[in-house]
Amino acid sequence: MKIGLVSLKQEWLKKKNNQSSCSNLIKKCKSLNIELVIFPEMTLTGFCINEVSIAEFKEKSETIKFFDNLSKLYNVSIVFGISVHSTESKLNNSLFYTNPLSSNFQSYAKVHPFTFSGEKNNYKSGTEIVVLNHNDIKIGASICYDLRFPILFNIMSEYCSGAICIANWPSSRINHWYSLLKSRAIENQFFMIGVNRDGKDGNNIKYEKSSVIFSPSGEILHPIFTYKELDVYEVNFEEVNLIRKKFNTINDNVFKKYINLNKTMSIKIF
Q: Could you give the domains of the chain?
């Protein structure tokens, strides 16, 4: 399966400019026979947590409509990030998945807002662990800071062959990014797909091209083709079953059995 990771150089709060960049890259995906293309966190704005005006209502979101139209036009599934209204006073930092064969969106709200940056001031925690369904391939959903909390991935690993983490992860902590992605892949014996932005944001925070895929054994995959911010990978999800049959470790994780998902958290499997 061909997957495209886009290390987008997001223009700060300029939705139209970022739409243009995304549109051009998605068009390229069609010519490369890419099945799934993934963009970074808060795709059309950058990680802006204080400007609440960037948030959209899910039912009438121009961003969702934009990506859904492109998905159907170019016959490619798309994962993107967006700020959406959750309650009257709080927002959700969300991941959305669109499929060209369906009008039903799959979505995930970030479970762990980034307290260090003040994200909790305007954003609330999601209440569901989400497993996406991409043409019968199950892939867990996560956003940036979630990556630091392994139990989230431990739980979803029972249901999926990989996990996506879309992010705005700064260059100053880029070693953590690579180390955590690799760790999540090894400990859960699945593919770990990290998609990070590039460039500099409106807070003068620097980012670098660092989107990457780690195999279930912790090996870094290499792109088969690169075009501007787009890196194309060939991923065989059957590898997960082969590794787990040969040397299964995730079944011995007893701690996840003590998590009561009914109290504050549930799991949603599309």
A: 2-269 (3.60.110.10)
Strands of 68-154, DSSP E? 77-85, 91-98, 106-109, 128-134, 137-143
Instruction: Quickly tell me which residue has 């991409």 as its tokens.
Output: 134
Taking a C-beta distance cutoff of 8 angstroms, is the pair 41, 168 a contact?
yes
Q: Please name the residue that has the structure tokens 């808060």.
A: 42
In the sheet that 128-134 helps form, which strands lie side by side, from edge to edge?
Answer: 212-214, 191-196, 162-167, 137-143, 128-134, 266-269
Provide the whole-model pTM: 0.96
Closest to 193 measured CA to CA, from 165, 155, 158: 165
Average pLDDT along the chain, 270 residues, taken 10 residues at a time: 98 97 96 97 96 93 97 97 90 97 93 93 95 97 98 94 98 98 97 98 97 97 97 97 92 76 81
Strand partners, 206: 200
Amino acid at 30: K
